[in-house]
Fold this protein.
Amino acid sequence: MFALTPRLTLRPGWLEDAPALARAIAHEAVVSRLARVPWPYAEEDAAAFLSLQPYPREPRFLIVERSGDYRLVGGVGLHRGERGGVELGYWLTPGAWGRGYATEAGRAVLDIARHALALTRVDSHHHADNPASGRVLRKLGFVESGQSRRYALARDAEVECVDYTLDLAADPPRAMPIAA
């Protein structure tokens, strides 16, 4: 599965992306904000992630900037959450922060969730010390649903999180551009 936004290409990751993925994500400022990523992060970690079995109902995408050199700038996707629901997750390399890429990529993935996967609800969360991620989630229409403590692999500790939910069934449907 692929998705195009005005500025980005969302595509599956391939094993040959391991060096670029490792360069993009291997910043402590990125990894410390994620739940399932080890620190330090090496090319072998990227290769292991890219080798994971894909699940059609849990699409994972690399975010590629289409301007210039088609640089890998992040990742976004849906996955089965710790509590059984479907969760939206995303990250960006520091050089891509503040450009609206997370919101743009998130909208594309939520359109896939709604139109291609027929999901009616998506959850998400962010570490309480990462309020920028909360702003992205609110722009995407998520509503705060509580607080929790979750294990963060890079920190090797439980961290305070803010939980969100998005009722896709309550959202007015938008036309999704598709190609046949």
